[in-house]
Amino acid sequence: PLRPFPISKMRLVPDGIEKPDWALDGIPKIEPDSDLQKRVEIKTPEQIERMRETCRIAREVLDAGARIIKPGITTDEIDRVIHEETIARGGYPSPLNYHFFPKSCCTSVNEVICHGIPDARSLDIYT
């Protein structure tokens, strides 16, 4: 049976990293009213290159998180690595405080719960 585990405090993002509009209060302001919600934007070559670079960085961060996964690790430890690796690359962990989500990544210990909040749960109790 899945039960709640303790959740650590929200991790901080250094002042030098650009933050999205939801970073402070948890409420996205631009996204809901953006016309991109209703139309497809044709990207310029420069935008496409920036997207490729962003995807490469995201892959590096996810690979770093994957390298530490083993029985006994907590989902909060996975979140810590994802947070630190994102910050190290100059990025803001996009889930962090988005609609008040308290962590830098989402975890699912049973492949059922979507957007699970990383906590003190040890992965060895599910093996």
TrEMBL record:
State a single Pfam family of this protein: Peptidase_M24
Q: Name one GO molecular function term.
A: metalloaminopeptidase activity
Q: Which InterPro entries match?
A: Creatinase/aminopeptidase-like, Pept_M24
Q: Domain of life here?
A: Eukaryota
Under which name does UniProt file this protein?
Answer: Peptidase M24 domain-containing protein
User: Which GO CC annotations does the UniProt entry carry?
Assistant: cytosol
Q: Which residues form the Peptidase M24 domain?
A: 49-123
